[in-house]
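Recall the central idea of this unit: under ordinary conditions, the amino acid sequence of a chain determines the structure it adopts. In this exercise we apply that idea directly, starting from the sequence alone.
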Amino acid sequence: MNKNLANGPEIPMGLGMALAKSPDAMRVFASMPPARQQALIEQTHQIRSKQEMNALVQRMMRGEAQG
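Accordingly, the structure predicted from this sequence is:
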């Protein structure tokens, strides 16, 4: 697991871009415990499009993502 201990888990570019579109999404992600953030990040490895990444972020916002 790649981690910068000062800043939490390393966020993949696609997830970072999707989160950057919504300050609320960024706050939700930032408020997650590190283990939950890492679980969500691991889900991104299966994502193949911007639409899928945006859908993951929307599920996270609704509390439906398994992060």
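Residues 1-6 have pLDDT under 50 and may be disordered.
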